[in-house]
Write a structure and sequence with these properties.
Layout (H helix, E strand, L loop, with lengths): L2 H28 L1 H5 L10 H29 L5 H22 L5 H21 L1
Amino acid sequence: MTFELWMVVGSVVLLFAQITIQALLLTAQLGSEYNASPRDEDRPLTGKAARAKRMLDNYLETYPAFIALALVAVVSGGSDWLTQGGAALYIVARIAYIPLYIQGIAYVRSLAYTVACLGLLVMLIGLVI
């Protein structure tokens, strides 16, 4: 399996980790009865539970681009140090983003997001040059 595909596998683990964190914080705030319900009524989240929800939503915004770039690198045979380095940069920055976002650490959190996006850009550059 190529490095990029290993990073895709890692990204799925990261996805499930963020879903779990979000669910645990939602349950801690609103209770297991609400979490198990169909949630027909919206109840506002605050604090860490709200940040965990936004963190997950943010991951899902960039995740399709990562998957697409990784798969193009593999299918096209275009895997190189740029696509591999960009993939690693994306995953590492997204891991760092989790505690930064949940703790509400401004600026450094934005830096982690920017680094993850740079990882995607590096992958794209590796595919087009």
